[in-house]
Amino acid sequence: MPRDVRARRRALGSALVLLVITLLASGCPGRLEDPDRFLDGGGFTCPDVVTELFPQRCGGSICHEGAEPAAGLDLVAEGVVERLVDKMGRDCPGILVDPVVPESSLLYEKLLPLPSCGSPMPIGKPTLTAEELACVRDWISAQTP
């Protein structure tokens, strides 16, 4: 191989290495202003299930709110806890909110991709994230009969 071809390849290789180093160095984030924000798994905080999550994700005129809520289940009006804890479901068998075994609660099951009865909730809205589902499960386990 001619000397000038080798020299060009070497120069191209050196330029490529320099470019990669420059790109890597420019992507360095530097210093975090608030590093503690990232220590708890990304900063997700559970919304209040009764006053925030249920109204935003489960409420609405054709869902679980108003004078004739779906499945007779109003998740927005005052008294949600009293209507749910240790109460039987109307259209699907099971306890709506079972603090002893939260994962078997009908309310929790209906939020899963494949509930044991009926369609997964919420219908027509984005499914709950894993974090939101964990919030609901934790809220259920915190309820007292």
Q: Would you write up a description of this structure?
A:
- The protein has 145 residues and is mainly α.
- It has two domains: 3-30; 49-142.
- 39% of the residues lie in helices and 0% in strands.
- It has five helices and no strands.
- It has helices spanning 3-26, 49-58, 80-84, 106-110, 130-142.
- The N and C termini lie far apart (85 Å).
- 17% of the residues are buried.
Record the SSE blueprint.
Elements: H1 3-26, H2 49-58, H3 80-84, H4 106-110, H5 130-142
What descriptive keywords fit this protein?
145 residues; mainly alpha; 2 domains; Cytochrome C Planctomycete-type domain-containing protein
How do you describe this structure in short?
With 145 residues, the chain is mainly α. Helices cover 39% and strands 0% of the residues. The termini are far apart.
Based on CA atoms alone, the radius of gyration comes out at 27 Å
- What is the approximate shape? rod-shaped
SS strand fraction: under 5%
Total separate domains: 2
Protein name: Cytochrome C Planctomycete-type domain-containing protein
Organism: Polyangium spumosum
